[in-house]
Amino acid sequence: MQRNEIQSKILTILEDLFEFEKPGLNDNLRDDHGFDSIDAIELLGEIEKILGFSLTRAEKEKAMTIRTINDILDYIEAIESERNK
Amino acid sequence: MKRRVVITECSAITPIGYNKDDIIQSLKQGRSGVKPLRDDGLLTEFIHSHVFGTVDYPIDYQFKRLYTKTMGPVAYYACQVAKDILERAGLSQDFISSGRLGVAFSSTHGSPTVQREIYKTFFSNLKSEFSSIGAVDYLKSMVHTTAVNITRMFGITGRVVASSTACTTSSQSIGFGYEMVKYGMQDAMICGGADEYDTTTVAVFDNLLACSVAFNDTPECTPRPFDTKRDGLVVGEGAGAVLLEEYESAKKRGAPILAEVIGFACNNNGGDLILPNLEGITATLKIALDDAGITPGDVDFISAHATATKMGDVIEAQAIADVYGNAPLVTGLKSYMGHTMGSCGAIETILTLYMMEKGFIAPTLNLDTVDERCAMINHTRKLTSIDTKIAAIQNFAFGGVNTCLLIKNGNSSAD
Questions:
Q1: What ipTM was assigned to the predicted interfaces of this complex?
Q2: Among residues B50, B109, B144, B305, which one is catalytic?
Q3: CA B381 to chain centre
Q4: Domain boundaries, position A16
Q5: Pick from B386, B378, B379: which is nearest to B361 by CA?
Q6: Against a cut of 0.90, is the pTM above it?
Q7: How many separate domains does chain A show?
Q8: Domains of chain B: which residue ranges?
């Protein structure tokens, strides 16, 4: 999946499901949009739908360092790349 | 330490209206909120009872996603009535978050709508690549979801009590809240209950042959508490919340005193989990009077549990007759709304507050011919003007749990 495509899907999810207003790729998810631990778990569920497979426990734990939307995109690309090796 | 406890705010979402004026008009005009059972696409076709106490008007929820992400439909009801009373009370955020304000609130079984979605995953998507159970589905469906969504939304840090005891859920909420404030553990409590549209509850009572089935084509004619043609209860939905405060502090801040809670009783039949028990219920009514330090003759009005089941109404009438004789007026308010389950105790308390304030008692709807086994008490047969000083609100639940609340009109509660 191209990064542009992932970005479009993630932005749609953040705006429609998480009610983000004018999300910026380098916004701090928590400070700028009130993103909390519940949202993080919910977002992982949405990422699984984008990827089409379940994330492992280890893969999910790697998501705990995500701070920005760009971090989300990096994370998805890394997972996809790792799985396609 | 024993302190006086007063009700200073209330709000209810009911099948006969949301705001006070609508509810009072429904009571005065004999308007029923029982409608045809909505199709859920799952159980409805297998249920014999096709009537339901329905909230069918729009509610303008203005909750942000920050809060709604952990809320099922039942929590929407709960947070809305809690929001109403907090906004009207105007309590400071400092007090709300001081640890001296608690919440006693619950529902029959969390959110069945969310639980149903979880079960759908179990039974239809077991081989799915990834789980479709949401991370917050438990928070939306757990039995104390209403109470903790209220604490979260308003930043309440005091005690949480989530007594989930079916039909006595919210009467226990008020009773336990009353005891918290009375004995000084909290200075104020938001108390109540809520239950959302749910066909599994209807199916449960339907299986027990306890639901009304003879009036499917004329929903407004059922339930019929104490009537010879009663054929069972009607499940309903709704929510009710009251704000309890310690009397002196409520008076100091100039809060309206709607009523004083003067007594509460809660016991168990200690046996059968379904059948009503005359001994247990009679004891409840007496314990409440003892707690309030009043005599039966002091009570002007009884809001009976009166679900319109064959035996329940007879046993309750006998208990009332044994304790009170035939002096106080008795109304079965479920005749207007059906049985709103976990919210019925709070809703029936709030309707009683409204009637107290406006100086009338509504008659039991659909009570055309009193069953002779229930005839020994003073049924309210027509809209009656009366200055009610003290009222009893009675509720009884599956599991043999019985409650009785005694409240004194705010106009009579001055020093």
A1: 0.77
A2: B305
A3: 23
A4: 3-83
A5: B386
A6: yes
A7: 1
A8: 5-410
Instruction: Give the class (CATH, top level) of B5-410.
Output: alpha beta
Of B65, B69, B130, the CB nearest to A53: B130
Digit-coded pLDDT (tens) for B354-377: 999 999 999 999 999 999 999 999
| The amino acid at B253 | R
User: What is the full DSSP assignment across chain A?
Assistant: --HHHHHHHHHHHHHHTS--SS--TT--HHHHH---HHHHHHHHHHHHHHHTSPPPHHHHHHGGG--SHHHHHHHHHHHHHHHT-
- Residue B339 falls in the annotated catalytic set: yes
**CA gyration radius, chain B:** 20
A40-60 b/e with 16+ CB inside 10 Å = b?
bebbbbbbbeebeeebeeebb
Nearest CB partner across the interface for B129, out of A18, A42, A54: A54
> Token pair 């006070």 is at which residue?
B20
The rounded radius of gyration (Å) of the Cα atoms in chain A is 12
Please indicate whether residue B305 is annotated as part of the active site: yes
One-letter amino acid for residue B63 of the chain: F
Residues A58 and A62: their CA atoms lie apart, in Å, by: 6
Interface of B with A in 7-66 (CB under 8 A): 64-66
* CATH number assigned to the domain comprising residue A49: 1.10.1200.10
